[in-house]
Amino acid sequence: MTDTAIRVVVVDDHAIFRSGLKADLDADLVVVGEAATVEEAIDAVSSTRPDVVLLDVHLPGGRGHGGREVIAGCAALLPETKFLALSVSDAAEDVVSVIRAGARGYVTKSISGAEISDAVRRVAGGDAVFSPRLAGFVLDAFGTGDVAVEDELDKLSARELEVMRLIARGYSYKEVAKTLFISIKTVESHVSAVLRKLQLSSRHELTRWAADRRLL
Amino acid sequence: MAATMYRSQDRIIAGVCAGLAAHLGLGVAVVRGLMVAAGFLFGAGVLFYAWLWLFVPMEGEAGAASLASDGGPRLRLFRPAPVAVPGVAVPGSRDVPGSPAGSVVRAPRRGVGEVLVGAGLLLVAGAIMSQSFGLNLPFGTIVPLAVIAGGAFLAWMQLDQTRRTGLLNAAKADTPMALLRLFGGLALVVAGVLVVVNGTGSWNLLWPSVLASLAVLAGVGLVLAPWVLKFWREFQAERAGRIRETERAEIAAHLHDSVLQTLALIQRRAANPQDVTRLARAQERELREWIYQDAGRNAGKLVARIKEVCAEVEDLYGQAVDVVAVGDADLADKGQALVQAVREAVLNGVRHGGTAVSVYVEAGPGGVDVFVKDRGPGFDAAVVPADRLGVRESVIGRMRRFGGLAEIISSPDGTEVRLHLPATDDDE
Fold it and tell me: Considering A127, A157, A179, which residue would you say is the last residue of a domain?
C-alpha cells in the first residue's frame, strides 16, 4: 500500500452519522466528499473520484434502490473506485444485493472507528472485507457440504470454505492465517475469490437462495 | 351477573342456555330445564330460544378475537416474545396461531345428536298419544311445519358455525359437510313451504312445484348475482382495510411501547455510556427481531433458541453477543442441552473475556457445530480448579451426556469453545 492518504467519500442520509464517522476515521483517511441521496452520491463520486466510497445501503432518492443504484451509476469508475457497504441492516437481501452490485465488502454501522479505518484501507488495497455475518450468508448460499457442480464459479473450494467458516466464527484475517498456517496475503486472495464468486455466480442454488429471500 | 349477555362456548345447541345462565347468575341445568319446560307451553320456550339464538352474539365473536385469529402469523408478531427462563427448558414457540375458539369448540358437543333424536321421539310419541286420546291433530299442517323448522334449524346451525369461527373466516363455508347442511336445510324449507302453500298438504304436487320454484330461484339468482358479487367485494375490501388499519395501530402501539420508551430512557441515562449502549443494543435487537421475523423463518428452531439465550446474556451483562447462523435444525431434547451449553459458554465468555462474543452456529446433515469466541485474556483449561462447575459440568459434561463433544481452546488472544452435536436418526 502507498503512503499517500486514501481519499474517501461518505454517503449516508444521516448528517450525524456522517460527521461521527468522519471524526472516527484515522488520520490517513481523508474525507473528500459527502452525500445524502443517490443523485448527490453519484455526482460526488464522479467529481471527486475517491479511492473508497463508504456507502449506506439504504438511501433516499433515485429509483429507490439505495446503495445498489449508486454503484450502478458509478459503474464506469468501478475498478479504481471501491465501494464499502455500510448498513444498520444485516438482512440477507440488503447485504447480498449490494455485494452483487459490486461492493467490495460489507460492515455494520456499529463497527468501531479503528475497525472501519482498517476495512477502508483493506478495500483500498484491493481486498475484500467480510464481516462474520456476510461470511455466514455466503456459507448459507453456497452450502457447506461438498457438492458436485460443473462451473468452478458455483462452488467454494475446500480452503475457501475453511476461511469463510473461520471468519464467520469471528476470526480476524490474521487469526485465520495463523490457524490455517497460511500467509495473510493468501487469506486475502481466498476472500477476494469468494467475493468474485458471490458476485458472478449464477449457480442454481444461489439463485434459488436469493429468490427465497426476494433478492431477485 | 354479567352485564352483557353472550352465548356460551360451552354449548349443547347454540350456547343460549349457558349464556343466559351466566347472565342471570343461575345454574346452567336450571335454565336448561326451564327452557325445555317452557317448550311444552305451546312452544314458547322454543320460540324464545330461537329468538335469543338469532340476536345474542357468540362469546368472543366481536372484533378483536376474530381478527386476531384470522390475521394468522403476521399478527402473531405483535404479541410479546416468550420470555426465556434461565435454566428452564422452554419448549420452543409452539403456540399455534389458530383461533382461540377453534380448540374449545369440539368437546362439549358430544351427545347433541342423541338429545335431538330423543326430543324428536318424545314429540312424536306425544302426538300419537294425544291422537289416541281423541284429539284430532291436523298432520297435514304439522308435518310441513316440522319440515320447515328442521330445515331452518339445519341452515341456521351452519350459519352459526361460520359465525362462531369468525365471520371473516370465509374458507370454513367451503367444506363439503357445511355445504351439505346448508343445502339440505334449504331444500327442506323450500319443500315444506311449498306443501303449506299448496294448502292440500299433499305430496303429489311436490315435484312440479319444486321444479317451478327452483327455476324462479335460479332466475332471481342470475339477476341478483352481480349485486351480490359487488357487495361481497366491497365487504372484502372493507375488511382488508380494517385489517390494515389494525396492523397500523399495532405497529404504532409497538413503536410507542418499545422505541419511544427506550429513547426516553436513553436521554435520561445519557451520562452513563454503558447503560446507553445496553439500552440501544437491546432495543436494536428487539426491533430487528420484530421486523425480520416476518418471513417466519426459524420459528421454534434451534437457531431461534440460541439467539434467544444470547440476547438474554447480552441484556444481563451489557456486552455484545453476535450470532451468525448457517442452516437450522429442529429443537429436540439434545438440542435443548446444546442450547444450555451454548448459554453457559457465552456467559463464560462475557464474564471472563469481558469483550464482545461471537457465536457461530452451523447445522448440517452431519450434526450441529457451535463456536463461541471471545477476545478476553484467555485462561488455561487445565488449571481451572475442580470446583469450578461452570465450564466443566455445564458445557463439557452436558455435551458428553448427550453424545456430543466440547472443546475449549484458550490463548492470550481469546478463548473459543467448540461444541459439536452429531445428528441421529431420531431427531430429524
Answer: A127
Residues A69 and A11 in one domain: yes
What residue in A sits closest to B358 (Cα-Cα)?
A170
Compute the nearest-CA separation of A142 from chain B (Å). Answer: 11
pLDDT-based confidence at residue B136 (cuts at 50, 70, 90)? low
Residues B195-234 as b/e (b if ≥16 CB within 10 A, e otherwise) read bbeeeeeeeeeeeebeeeeeeeeeeeeeeeeeeeeeeeee
Q: Where are the beta strands (DSSP E) in A15-75?
A: 29-35, 52-56
Tens-digit pLDDT profile for residues A61-91: 777 777 788 888 777 776 788 888 888 776 7
Number of domains within chain B: 2
Last residue of a domain, one of A108, A127, A146: A127
Q: Chain A residues with CB inside 8 Å of B362's CB?
A: 139, 144, 165, 168
Mutation pick from A111, A130, A156, A169 vs chain B, by most beta carbons of B within 10 Å, is: A169
Among B303, B306, B326, the residue to mutate for chain A (most A Cβ within 10 A): B326
Nearest CA to A144 out of B315, B393, B324 is that of B324
Please determine, for residue B103, whether its predicted confidence score (pLDDT) is greater than 50: no
Domain end call among B36, B58, B80: B58
CB contact residues (below 8 A), chain A span 49-108, against chain B: 88, 90-91
